[in-house]
Amino acid sequence: MTIGAPEFDEDGLSDHQIFEGSEIRLQDLTFTYDEDPPLSILYEYDFGDSWRHLLILRRIPRQIGIDYPRCVAGSRSAPPEDVGGCSGYAGFLEAWGDPELEEYKAVRRWVGRKFDPERFDLEATNKAIARAMRAAKGSYLFRHDRS
Predict the structure, then answer these.
(1) Could you tell me if 16 and 6 are in contact, meaning their C-beta atoms sit under 8 angstroms apart?
(2) Which of 2, 34, 61, 71 is least buried, going by the fewest C-beta atoms within 10 A?
(3) How far apart are alpha carbons 107 and 97 in whole angstroms?
(4) DSSP 9
């Protein structure tokens, strides 16, 4: 199943139906009830640069006092905006890690000294999810079922 923006397949070259992303909710997707079968989602962000993110969703017991949705694990830092897609990021990482390269100082100045490509901040990620949920509340994209 492909969920996204059907208008990006104007030529009809896709070999399967594309469902409108704003009309599908996570609760509409089917999870099996086996022990630990994840639901994998390949999310493409920024069609020009083709950033692809693999999301693995698993059922976990609800915890009292925890806001949902939330991230429970992740890896690596997000690439800087406008780094130029996967190949641009590969070049960026090469320059980031090699003081002998001419671009080393420029990429360090660009993203700041605190940037660490290997760091994943779970708390910051969950704060960003909470901010996005608050920002979406009341818009046509926000749906909240209490079922």
Answers:
(1) no
(2) 61
(3) 10
(4) G
Does residue 138 lie in a domain region? no
Residue 94: give the domain boundaries.
77-118
Least confident stretch, 13-17, 63-67, 123-127: 13-17
> Residue 81 corresponds to which tokens in the numbers above?
């905006």
Entry field: residues in the chain: 147
Q: What percent of the chain has pLDDT over 70?
A: 71
* Number of folded domains that form the chain: 1
pLDDT for res 84 = 86
Q: Which candidate, 62, 89, 57, 51, places its Cα nearest to that of 73?
A: 57
DSSP string across 108-140 = HHHH-TT--TT---HHHHHHHHHHHHHHHTTST
